[in-house]
Amino acid sequence: MAIKRNGTNESDGAGVHDGSTGELVDASSGDLAASLPESLSIAISLPTTVHAAPEDELAVAIVEIPVNPGAVEVTQPTTTSIDVVQPATTSISVVSEESVIVPLPESDGKNYTRRNRRDGEVSTTPETASMLTADRLIEKNHKRRTAPEGGWNAFVYAVTFHLVNRGDSPKVRARKELEARIDKQFVGGARFVPVLTRKGGVGKTTVTALLGMALADAREDRVIAVDANPDRGTLSERVNKQTRSTVRDIVTLAPTITSFNDFSTMVSRDDTRLDILASDTDPLLSEAFDENDYNVVADLAARFYSLVLTDCGTGIVHSVMRATLQRADSVVIVSGGSVDEARLASETLTWLEANGYGDLVKNAVVAINTATQGTNLVKLEEIEAHFKSRVREIVRIPYDPQLAAGSVIDYATLKPLTRASARELAALVMDGLPVRQGA
């Protein structure tokens, strides 16, 4: 070990030279510490430590020369310079209002339209791609009109191999227009139409059945006629009975009727798909059918039917009549052809006006049954003129032997004039019904 003292290296020995006197001082003496200078530096050279990788690390080394973690070469990071390019300045030129607009090239007027040009005609100038439209290139398939109905027009359509179609005959067109009026569509709930008069025996029940059959025959929805006569009505006898149920059964079983199938088991249906709900056959029970009972029946009928006709009794002051008129969207007044029958029908209108049903009177339709006695002795034109001053429309119901019998009505075998009158009555009633509920 070499000791550097004041810049002079001395050899290791038994003593140390005194720097101030130059004498050798005994190192073993106790004055050695006192003789040492205040500043003393010692330089020691150590051997370089070499790290040797174990054999197990060398066995799994990826490279042939293992990395010596004891000697890591640190490289000085290089400086990367980035050149920033100044974006070029974009100049916007403003065109003054005095700039000249280059006009489109002149054409002959046929380059952009094919008007007044026959198919296949070549344009004098080149056409643009927009001229190749579907209307120009695709052959239109014209829909063939439906085959005409009625006499001569149908014959001409057949002999010309469907080339000449003159359409339906005037008679057929009138029939289809009438059917369209009867098949009027509604928005909302059911429509109620009571048929009433103050006098019995004028054909009120027959008119109710005829009206219902004409409606059901032309319409696709459901139509029902309810016999609300508290004095033993006969509406159910106008069709073939299919059940013994009555309005009383509807009232009793109302909580259990949850579907149309449940309701349909209590009505009778004829060939026109008109459903009829019978009244009580026992006069003692029929008197018990009151306003509340009718409301129960009407509420259920409104759930399953679009049109509800009500065959009312002659007692217009009965509570059932009040409930019927409160639901009515229109009314049909039935009158006979005699003097007293026409007068009582007119008094029915007066009673309605006096009790707050003036709107129903203005919208009413009067059906004059010409099959009653005395019709041939009176002037029907005068009766019609009287009612036209009070109601919306008048319809004559002609005499028909099947109706006069007072039994089951077969709508298909009625006289053509009778069916035409029933259809006219149905169309007039539909004309007066609102499309929307409450309108």
Automatic annotation (TrEMBL):
It comes from the Bacteria. GO terms for biological process: negative regulation of cell division. It holds the Pfam family CbiA. Residues 1-11 have a biased composition (Polar residues). Residues 1-27, 105-126 are annotated as: Disordered. One of its GO terms (cellular component) is cytoplasmic side of plasma membrane. GO terms for molecular function: ATP binding; ATP hydrolysis activity. Residues 197-338 form the CobQ/CobB/MinD/ParA nucleotide binding domain. InterPro entries: CobQ/CobB/MinD/ParA_Nub-bd_dom, P-loop_NTPase, ParA/MinD_ATPase. This is MinD/ParA family protein. It comes from Lacisediminihabitans changchengi.
